[in-house]
Amino acid sequence: MSKVVILSGSPNPGSRLSGITQYVESHLSEQGISFEHVVVASLPAEDLIHAKFDSKPIIEAAAKVEAAEAVIIASPVYKASFTGVLKTFLDLLPQKGLSGKFVTPLFLGGTIAHLLSIDYALKPVLSSLNAKHFGSGVYAIDSQIARLDSGVGESQFQLNDELKERLDATITELVEELKRRA
Length: 182
Known about the structure:
This protein is 39% helix and 21% strand. The protein is α/β, with parallel strands linked by helices and 182 residues long. The chain has a single domain (3-181), classed as Flavodoxin domain (Rossmann fold, 3-Layer(aba) Sandwich). Strands 1, 2, 3, 4, 5 and 6 form a 6-stranded parallel sheet that branches. Strand 1 (3-8), helix 1 and strand 2 form a beta-alpha-beta unit. Helix 1 crosses helix 6. The protein is globular, with a radius of gyration of 15 Å. InterPro entries: Flavoprotein-like_sf, FMN_Rdtase-like_dom, NAD(P)H-dep_FMN_reductase, NADPH-dep_FMN_reduc_SsuE. One of its GO terms (molecular function) is FMN reductase [NAD(P)H] activity.
């Protein structure tokens, strides 16, 4: 049907942000929405830091963004903003790299204090990439996500009901937008 790319800006693969992205991936799959997940921290650090536009992994990741109809940008909040890891990748996208994309932010902070970081830190950067169509997005806090580590394999998480409701509404909004564009 439609294509979504999830950009995960967490430098820690086992962070609670993974609980959010796993939940979203599961629900996109249930809706029959094809998606790809770009974990920015898994891209070569030297290529990101030195802005190697010609790096094969960077070109491949940027191509996923270009091919997508919608982009979900997931990041923990560090120092009242999204991560530097994510910023290094966004800097490597073409100047109009988000033109025509439906962009949905998913942020995770330690407290509600940085709720407006989506509007005041992320959206200006996305606007510089020509993003004009934004979903409502979700700002979650750490206490809404419990880690259920079994000690083996990938971390498992339990999201509280209020966070699930907000994510469900955001996913529904995204799916409806993709249907509208079809």
